[in-house]
Amino acid sequence: MKTIKKIKEFTLLAESIRKRGKTIGLVPTMGFLHEGHLRLIRMARKQCEVVVLSIFVNPAQFGPGEDFEKYPRDINRDRHLAEKEGVDYVFYPAASEMYKSEHKTFVEVEGLGDIMCGAYRQGHFKGVATVVLKLLNITKANRAYFGEKDYQQMMIVKRMVDDLNVDVEIVRVPTVREEDGLAMSSRNRYLDRKERENAGILYKCLNKAKDMIKGGEKNLRVVRTEMIKELEKNRYISRVDYIEFRNPLNLQEISEAGESGRSILVAVAAWIGSTRLIDNMVIKL
Ligand code: PAF
After folding, report:
1. Percentage of the chain with pLDDT > 70?
2. Any atom of ligand 1 within 6 Å of the Cβ of 131
3. Of 108, 133, 213, 257, which has the fewest CB atoms closer than 10 Å, so is most exposed?
4. What is the pTM of this model?
């Protein structure tokens, strides 16, 4: 496994891999790998001849006052895990390499980037879409792997590559959960012991929505109220940013559970202490 920090070096390498007719799978990450990332890598390993893991804590997707500085980083541990999973190349650029001082171009996915998390984290998805497009261009990936845990991110990336005719297949990979249902995330590291013991509440609350909707409740406002009650009962939940019901195919808002065969994305963002967690579930009627 080789680690490359320079864009030019990576691009030349990617060109030569493509010339040899090999497929490149990109797993874009901000590092501090967990089992969720490892599943993405394993899927890429199965489907592609060359697997690239990018590790870059992207400053452009953090707003002022967010956790850019304290975001967990451990490149040696990440490299060790990546090597064990059979990653071929780690792309690990510095921020100054990715964003030259004269950088002026950003990608915005209208209508999808300013709802849900985008309404609470202004500019976040503009930073995500921009860096993902840069990573796709640099690595010349045939396929790129995204977890369903960041459902909105995955949909934004899909929309972007379709709209901008980027020749890459976006592969979605199911959320990996801890035993109590907590979706794996590098940010779980911020939770103290008590907060961690209570963090399964998000998944519990998504299951409550599933039970209600499958049990015949059509009015999603009623479902939301019950979910909020469930969350607010827990004294470690310091704030609920949103609970939303969306069409999983286009993220349009849904107010009523429809006929059978339809699916509903239920998405939640809530704070446990000073840590913001997100989770979601697609409920099939
Ligand atoms: O999901 C992440 O880790 C990041 O948002 C991504 C896709 C690597 C872009 O920085």
Report:
1. 100
2. yes
3. 108
4. 0.97
